[in-house]
From TrEMBL:
Name listed for the protein in its UniProt record: Amino acid ABC transporter permease
Pfam families for the chain: BPD_transp_1 (PF00528)
UniProt entry keywords in alphabetical sequence: Amino-acid transport, Cell membrane, Membrane, Transmembrane, Transmembrane helix, Transport
Classification lineage: Bacteria, Bacillati, Actinomycetota, Actinomycetes, Streptosporangiales
TM spans (from-to): 27-47, 78-98, 119-140, 248-269
Places the protein is found: Cell membrane
Domain called ABC transmembrane type-1: residue spans: 74-269
Organism: Streptosporangium fragile
Signal sequence annotation: none
Cited InterPro entries: AA_ABC_transptr_permease_3TM, ArtM/GltK/GlnP/TcyL/YhdX-like, MetI-like, MetI-like_sf
SUPFAM superfamilies found in the cross-reference section: MetI-like
Amino acid sequence: MSTIKSEPSAAAARGGGGLSPRKRRRVILGVQYAIVIGVIGLIAATVDWPTIREHFLDVDAARQMLPTLFTVALKNTVIYTLSAYVIGFLLGLLLALMRMSSAAPYRWAALVYVEIFRGLPALLVLMLIGFGIPIAFQGLQFPGDVYGKVAIGLGLVAAAYMAETFRAGLQAVPRGQMEAARSLGMSHSRAMVSVVIPQALRLVIPPLTNELILLFKDSSLVSALGITAATIELTKLGSDAAINSADATPFVVAGLTYLIITVPLGFVVRRLEARQTRGR
């Protein structure tokens, strides 16, 4: 009899007052959805929509940014990003190999570099490259002037982060891959280039794509170098247009243009991560 009496009480305890775990989850989700909808409705009811349309969705202010938005600003932003990415990629891979070298001076030099450039703000590095280096080395000319300064400045910062990404990828490659390549008569350097590095690159494609997105956004720091109309990028164009029109629409247009690039790249990152997860 005691056993029979305990069963309903245990079931009630598990059910939480008669609700099954699935029903409890539905109730909790329903409450959460109601709260979110309520907050959105409250915001929508309190926003001054006529002012939003006038100062944030002004078609005339957006039209004044054309065609410079795409023919100059977006083009320069892409150039700044890709040139810095190439430098960061090559230098980062070199630093990763130095971090894994058997020679202690190489490891120390790479470690010092990574710690310094990961600790310095990208804006400060850009200003040091753009204004400090020409003072220290009189007569030094960067290739492409602003383009060269941006590529080197952002590339140096990106290399510090990519170096750690590459190092993680190289360490993730099974040690047996190197041993198998050496058993086939390959030298250590040949095995690294032909066997280990290609496998490591496949492993780190998602974080490297994330770094490309970060560089695309960091290109907005270029305006600190005093760019001209020919070297203007998206954020500077939006800022100048907003000042001229006394309107916030140019900022919205510039932000949407960034999203045209970054959202598809983010989708690519998620697909690559999902594919690697399935592969494992």
